[in-house]
Write a structure and sequence with these properties.
With about 325 residues, the chain is an alpha/beta fold. The protein has helices at about 10-15, 20-30, 75, 100-120, 135-145, 160-175, 185-190, 230-235, 245, 250-260, 270-275, 295-315; strands at about 10, 35-45, 50-55, 60-70, 80-90, 95-100, 125-130, 155, 180, 195, 215-220, 240, 290. It contains twelve helices and 13 strands. The strands form two sheets. A seven-stranded parallel β-sheet has the order 9-8-7-10-11-13-12, sandwiched between helices. It is globular.
Length: about 325
């Protein structure tokens, strides 16, 4: 398709046609196809970065997400992160669509966690705490509310208490049972599900707080120097990841304790391919399950394909 005829999709074009269960299922369905070929490219200039993440899944297509991170954009009145995702046909290599990268990332990140919890959290979970109060925390509350409709309370904790209260109020106004929490240890101790979405470099979640049967969803750490959970939690939990290829050697949450000998690679019991095939998972209601949401270009591709499908199927398309 000529470039001038490619659709360019933004949130305003498709959000009304998207929902969390569909996005979670898109990632689940993608893991019944052949494993993805993936590759990353980084270019840097001083403090600015160009990040390219590519994936190719036979039977689905090719996706390339290109993002710039420009440190001076705040002073320019521009977003610091901007980008676009290109989707190509699997057989012909023809460009199919351009999608705002922020749209793909928003749905991908929370749907990744939603699928992890669908596999690993106890179905009778009623109490949840989210650590962090940014955009990702808000999307996590929404996906968990959609996947676990019997959740009775979602507690929001943040280092800045007014920010937690603002997010809790916003969610409550949308019918999600959210409240702000002031005591993190107490909130975690009451929870059946704990999700953490922070920018922490040192652990903020302690294993001693987590009760048996809890599912822990670690979202925030994305660099080699970042962690959200301490060693005690890793030792107590059954550990799972979305993809071994994009987490174990790249993200501090696992890379640091692996290097220190706190855990071994054999302690990572499965990824989405293993969970989809039933080769691993929760063994007991008393298990603490820990899921590391690492993202990855293959998940971007799965979500991008689902976005395109929803846009094409929309009555006003």
């Amino acid at each position: 398709m000529p470039a001038e005829n490619l659709p360019y999709l933004r949130a305003s074009d498709v959000d009304a046609h998207l929902d969390w269960p569909t996005m979670v299922q898109a990632i689940a369905d993608g893991h019944h196809l052949a494993p993805a070929r993936i590759g990353d490219l980084f270019l840097a200039r001083d403090g600015d970065t160009l990040l390219n993440r590519a994936a190719w899944i036979d039977g689905m297509g090719i996706g390339l997400k290109t993002v710039t991170v420009m440190q001076g954009n705040g002073a320019r009145g521009l977003p610091s992160v901007q980008g676009v995702m290109v989707l190509f046909d699997d057989v012909t290599g023809t460009p199919v669509a351009l999608i705002d990268s922020a749209l793909v990332t928003y749905w991908k990140t929370a749907a990744d966690s939603g699928l992890g919890a669908r596999h690993l959290a106890r179905p009778d979970s009623r109490q949840m705490v989210i650590i962090g109060a940014g955009q990702v925390a808000g999307s996590l509350a929404r996906v968990y509310h959609a996947i676990f409709p019997d959740l009775e309370c979602i507690r929001i904790w943040n280092r800045t208490a007014p920010t937690a209260q603002t997010l809790a109020d916003t969610l409550a106004a949308d019918g999600i049972p959210a409240v702000a929490a002031s005591d993190l240890a107490q909130a975690v101790g009451q929870a059946d599900i704990v999700a953490s979405a922070t920018m922490a470099r040192e652990p903020v979640l302690r294993g001693e707080w987590v009760r048996p049967g809890t599912h822990v969803d670690l979202v925030g750490a994305f660099r080699a120097d970042m962690r959200e959970a301490d060693d005690a939690l890793l030792r107590r939990a059954r550990i799972f990841v979305d993809s071994r290829d994009t987490t174990l050697d790249h993200i501090g949450e696992l890379k640091i304790p692996l290097a220190a000998g706190v855990i071994t690679r054999d302690d990572v019991l499965g990824d989405f391919h293993d969970l989809a095939a039933g080769r691993s998972g929760r063994m007991s209601p008393e298990d603490i399950t820990l899921f590391k949401n690492g993202g990855g270009a293959h998940l971007d591709l799965m979500i991008a394909r689902a976005i395109i499908t929803a846009w094409k199927d929309a009555p006003d398309a």
